[in-house]
Design goal:
The protein has 12 helices and 18 strands. The longest helix has 20 residues. It is α+β, with helices and mostly antiparallel strands and 470 residues long. Strands 9, 10, 11, 12, 13, 14, 15, 16, 17 and 18 form a 10-stranded mixed beta sheet that branches. A 5-stranded mixed beta sheet has the order 5-4-8-6-7, with helices on both faces. Strands 1-2-3 form a 3-stranded antiparallel beta sheet. GO terms for molecular function: phosphatidylinositol binding. Keywords: Cytoplasm, Cytoplasmic vesicle, Endosome, Lipid-binding, Membrane, Protein transport, Transport. It is found in: Cytoplasmic vesicle membrane; Early endosome.
């Protein structure tokens, strides 16, 4: 997650006295507004629970009123503190830290705790309405949706909730995966824009986990609906013969066989992102990025209009980070993520050859989601490497049996596939490998310099690369 405190506000307290409020942005969007004393309270609670040697240093108190320069200095110090806490596996994943952010989010948006109906979409556009509390965290809402669909407890961890923006053609542009430190109802309603929705989608990358999901009727139906949707939106490449075979399997209601065939197709299990800009192989290139199969796939349109394709394996990324040059807000002013003036960048350092690392930058409003994809790929690789199970990645609360819904809702079967889009095939034929492009030495961009170590996501999976992998 990308934590920042890009600005402060002078606000009036209950007694009329002015105080400085710090706007905490998560992934470039205003999450909450807090006072120094609130953050100090969080710090003291973390020290009490984990010890002074684990918790980073906190900006000291000042006896006198701060000057504007001192306010700015404290803002920078608090920003570094929040980033350090979040990136510490113990502190950042603690209930103390996450509950602080959830409470602050609810207070900032001034949404009282009450029972509401939240609409969650499935990949096929089906609406699942669940009754929740406005104060329910992401895991609570995921459990409520699973209960409504009658998804077994041991399959809940294979799925996640995502914040998406619905496009004019009915497709979805992914904003981010909803996290444990936020309240889904508050997150989506505070954007004040009906285009933003919450969608349920599988959250793993390795298609071998499909076998676990397909063991149960509801899991199979969810996976089938998602696969059909991804084909319809052109995320999975299908030629005419493959399309005929898939449609035949649909007509026979052979869902498992349909998925098995889809697994053999290019870009199965990938998330496709909106067109954006990259500096690889040269600055200003337009690119369509897809994430899947432990890689970022690039379809780059070069200045000469030639289309080239290539992939960056996550195991060859030494580290990555997200930077934002303009703060965004989703407060009362109604501004929202994705506006053209906002510049978000994902930069990763890539092992191009045995002894050569190079920075590659993607400028995209979806940079946060790209970073989340990379992190979840690494997490999944490390779990698999250690012999663990993805089932165990879903953390149960101590008192948490799933809240079962009184009324279940079936996953509707999607309609038969439309005829394949003829415009997609020539695009694939035009593509040639990026490895055929002569790579010029690219110096570190400004976005790759002058950044503290806390801004980087180190890649633990990077260390496992041997010469045979290059």
């Amino acid at each position: 997650m990308h934590f920042s405190i890009p600005e402060t506000e002078t606000r009036a307290g209950d007694g009329g006295a002015a105080y400085v409020a710090y706007n905490i942005h998560v992934n470039g969007v205003l999450h909450c507004r807090v006072r120094y004393s609130q953050l100090l309270g969080l710090h003291e609670q973390l020290r009490k629970e984990y010890g002074a040697n684990v918790v980073p240093a906190f900006p000291p108190k000042k006896i006198f009123t701060l000057t504007p320069a001192e306010v700015e200095q404290r803002r920078e110090q608090l920003e570094k503190y929040m980033q350090a806490v979040r990136q510490d596996p113990t502190l950042g994943g603690s209930e103390t830290f996450n509950s602080f952010l959830r409470k602050a989010q609810q207070e900032t948006q001034q949404i009282p705790t009450e029972e509401v109906v939240l609409e969650v979409l499935l990949s096929n556009g089906q609406k699942v309405k669940v009754t929740i509390l406005t104060s329910d965290q992401t895991e609570d809402v995921l459990e409520a949706v699973a209960s409504k669909l009658d998804l077994p407890d041991d399959l809940v961890g294979y799925f996640s909730l995502f914040l998406v923006r619905e496009t004019k053609d009915g497709a979805f542009s992914f904003v981010r995966k909803l996290q444990e430190f936020e309240l889904p109802y508050v997150s989506v309603t505070s954007l004040h824009n009906p285009e933003f929705r919450i969608i349920l989608r599988k959250s793993y990358w390795d298609s071998s986990y499909d076998d676990d999901v397909m063991e149960h009727r509801v899991g199979l139906n969810l996976l089938y609906a998602q696969t059909v949707s991804d084909i319809e939106h052109g995320w999975i490449l299908v030629n005419k013969e493959q399309h005929r075979q898939l449609k035949s399997l649909q007509e026979k209601v052979s869902k498992k066989e349909f998925i098995r065939l889809a697994q053999t197709l290019k870009y199965y299990g990938y998330l496709k992102f909106d067109p954006c800009v990259t500096d690889f192989p040269e600055k200003g290139c337009h690119v369509v990025v897809s994430a899947g199969n432990n890689e970022l796939n690039f379809q780059v349109r070069l200045p000469n209009e030639q289309i080239k394709e290539g992939s960056f394996k996550v195991t060859r990324m030494r580290c990555w980070r997200v930077t934002s040059s303009v703060p965004m807000s989703n407060g009362p002013s109604g501004s929202s993520p994705g506006k053209s003036e906002v510049k978000l960048e994902l930069a990763f350092e890539y092992l191009m050859s045995k002894d050569r690392l190079q920075w590659v930058t993607i400028t995209s409003p979806q940079a946060i989601m790209l970073s989340i994809c990379l992190q979840s790929m690494v997490d999944e690789l490390m779990v698999k490497k250690s012999g663990g199970s993805i089932r165990k990645m879903f953390r149960r609360r101590v008192n948490g049996a799933l809240r079962r819904s009184d009324s279940q809702q079936a996953v509707k079967s999607p309609p038969l596939l439309d005829s394949p889009d003829a415009s997609r095939e020539p695009m694939a034929k035009l593509s040639s490998k990026l490895t055929s492009v002569s790579l010029r030495g690219i110096s570190h961009s400004s976005s790759a310099n002058d950044v503290g170590a806390n801004d980087f996501h180190g890649n633990y999976a990077f260390e496992g690369i041997g010469d045979e992998d290059l």
